[in-house]
Amino acid sequence: MKDCVFCKILAGDIASDILRETENLIAINDINPQAGVHILIIPKRHISDIIGADDAIWVEIKKMGLELMKEKGINNFRIVTNAGNAAAVKHMHVHFLGEIVVDRKL
User: Fold this and answer.
1) What span, in angstroms and rounded, lies between the C-alpha atoms of 3 and 21?
2) Which helix (H) or strand (E) element contains residue 41?
3) Active-site residues: which are they?
4) Exposure of 11 by Cβ count < 10 A (0-12 exposed, 13-18 middle, 19+ buried)?
5) What's the angle, vertex CA 104, arms to CA 99 and CA 106, rounded to 5?
6) Domains of the chain by start residue, with CATH
7) What is the per-residue pLDDT across 41-66, written as a single tens digit (0 to 9) for each?
8) Full-prediction pTM beyond 0.85?
9) Hey, which residues does 96 pair with through a beta bridge?
């Protein structure tokens, strides 16, 4: 998608520090962090939102999230995603938020 910021990052048109990469996913730091650790896990294939995601991508996201948890020494985290008009960027991604406590409002 030519106007998609994440597609531009994946194409190398926008610079980004890729923290982790697999065949199907990348992980980058969020440019507007809402937690001490705020990483975006983004499928390389343009999927509008979670409605278009298959089970395999969720398995990969879980695996990457657990790897990031271990790598960053995180004990508490949330994984958040949005769909439809709730999504600011219309390219499926999840927010990996580290060291979040139960009563923290996001």
Assistant:
1) 22
2) strand 37-43
3) 95
4) exposed
5) 100
6) 5-98 (3.30.428.10)
7) 999 999 998 888 899 999 999 999 99
8) yes
9) 39, 79
